[in-house]
Amino acid sequence: MNFQEENENIKNDIEINLLHSAEADSVEAMMDLAVYGLAAMVAKHNKTRGEQLVLQAIAGHMRKLLAALPETESLVQTGKVYRRLEDLIFKTYLPEQ
Predict the structure, then answer these.
(1) Helix, strand, or coil here: 29?
(2) Cα-flanking dihedrals φ and ψ of residue 82, to 5°?
(3) Closest by Cα among 68, 69, 63, 65 to 87
(4) Burial (CB count within 10 angstroms: exposed 0-12, middle 13-18, buried 19+), residue 10
(5) Entry pTM
(6) DSSP string, 37-72
């Protein structure tokens, strides 16, 4: 699977989570939206080194947020989808040594 297909699969998984969300303003839904937004940013803003570094910084902050939140069933699922996106960001855009 290539980069674009995996990114689209991640966005589709988040869309499904949002459709099944009981409350649109819950913490779980907000984190799903944040992951979806990051996936959308990865699709459009990944060309320059500066953009790649910004995506990595955002991914790092999002990881900290997910770690600080309680482990509800929905957030565990969001975390799994997020880790796929994080792998995509860091494996595709490793900074030059």
Answers:
(1) helix
(2) -60, -45
(3) 63
(4) buried
(5) 0.80
(6) HHHHHHHHS-SSHHHHHHHHHHHHHHHHHHHHS---
- pLDDT tens-digit profile of 45-91? 877 888 888 999 999 999 999 999 999 888 999 999 999 999 988 88
What is the rounded CA–CA span in Å between residue 49 and residue 67? 27
Question: What is the identity of the amino acid at 35?
Answer: V
- CA 24 to CA 53: how far, in whole Å? 31
Integer Cα distance of 31 and 45 in angstroms:
20
- Of 41, 65, 37, 34, nearest to 55 (Cα)? 41
Task: Map out the domains of the chain as residue ranges.
Answer: 3-90
Residue with tokens 């939140």: 69
| Contacts of residue 79, Cβ cutoff 8 Å, sequence gap at least 6 | 66
